[in-house]
Amino acid sequence: MFLGLTGRLGIDYILPPAKRLGPVPTTKEIYREYIDVAWPATMQGLLLQLMTAVNLAMVGALGADALAAVGIMSQPLMVMLVFVRSAAIAITAIVARRKGEEDYEMMNSVLKQGILLTILFYVPLLCLSFYFLEPVLTFAGAQASYIDEAVGYGQFVIIGLFFSAIGVMLGAALIGVGNTKAIFKANAIGNVLNVVMSFTLIYGLGPIPALGIKGAGIATMTSYTLICFLLLYAIHTKDSHLSWHRGSWRFDRNILSSIYYIGGSSLGEQAFERFGMFAYTKMVASLGVVALATHHICMNLIDIFYYFAMGLSYSGASYTGQSLGKKRPDLAEAYGQIGVRIALFISVIGFIVYFGLRHVVFDFFTQDYAVWQLGADIMILMAFASFPQALQLVYSGVLKGAGDNFYVMKYSLFVIAIFRPIITYLLCFTWGFGLYGAWVALLIDQSLRTVFSGWRFRTGVWQHIKI
């Protein structure tokens, strides 16, 4: 039985010799290639999660108003980043495809024109946001008691957001060529600097005065800027394919149309996801303080697992695009199957941790018995959700790497923006399951996304998309 299981993990089972269109790596090589791209992306996400928690703890020491001032800026920030993140998905897919085709001139043209688009879009957007920040934050729900602090913090963040947007675009190109290590190193250095500067500027040190929440804003702005310049340097010196000396800055109609087609679909997907999550969180918030506190802890826990699966998604997108560029759809599918197998492995580990250690985990987070008991129960649902969450991220990563974003947008509209809010309302309120219902809805949501993305992967339609 064990030999049969290990045989299914091998490249000869995944891609039989009769179906090969050319040479393939050995089993050891193909798993190593996949993991080499996935693990830096995973570590980047985990590091960001850790540093965010540390920064929140430092700001939280200043009081509830300071914490609220930082928190209220998060929603406008997410909205402003939606545009560049959508374009970044397009850049990753196109760069990966051009690398596979070995068209390095066009590949670098895609990066340069993506950066120009980012600058042209974000300069006016951020100028307007900077000038009208107070009414924007008031609309987002900021209270009079901390609006001045929020504006002081937010203005520095908006300045830094210009560099962050360019950094997202640079990172997208590096993912496309499979160089996630450069992204991890840049973010690691930037986030460590952020924590050190936050501590120094928030509380003061020696001759440096305590700036409070403004200090946190300056630290964030500085870290965004440093990460951007480190990524610029990495492309200039550390990557053998991306180069500022190749490609054209002049806009090309074919490149722009590809970015528009893929990026527009990605924008739709993210818009539907933001709407669905807003409606979902709003319903959970109405369940009461205990339910909301429990939900917040559980969402932070599942986010940790999410970054492991997201690393696999990035790797799948990169190798899918490169393989299709090489006219090797067989290899593209093989990399997808490799991702599925690794996803199942980490899901088993996630299940064991969430299910077996649920009481121990909540001992660490809370002393409130009601939250502890409810949270331990919810973690059982989290354990089961780890499987579809990982699988749907791997499948959607393959589809996005192939440029099949319009299909991802369509099922996101149905599942996230329409189905999940409805089933959440029914389970939470109509049928009276409370927070349990919200997490059953999340489990169903992830399962449906796995079905839709997995079915598309198996049809092979994505292998024939031209970008």
TrEMBL record:
Q: What is the documented function of this protein? A: Multidrug efflux pump.
Specify the protein's topology with respect to the membrane.
Multi-pass membrane protein
Cellular component per GO, a single term: plasma membrane
Give the transmembrane region(s): 53-72, 78-95, 115-133, 153-177, 189-210, 216-235, 284-309, 338-357, 369-391, 411-444
Look up the domain of life of the source.
Answer: Bacteria
The record's principal subcellular location, in a coarse class, is membrane
Please give the biological process terms from Gene Ontology that the record holds: monoatomic ion transport
Q: Which GO terms describe its molecular function?
A: antiporter activity; xenobiotic transmembrane transporter activity
UniProt similarity note: Belongs to the multi antimicrobial extrusion (MATE) (TC 2.A.66.1) family.
Lyase among keywords:
no
Q: Where in the cell is it found?
A: Cell membrane
Keywords in alphabetical order, please: Antiport, Cell membrane, Ion transport, Membrane, Transmembrane, Transmembrane helix, Transport
Q: Which InterPro entries match?
A: MATE_fam, MATE_MdtK, MdtK-like
Q: What is this protein called?
A: Probable multidrug resistance protein NorM
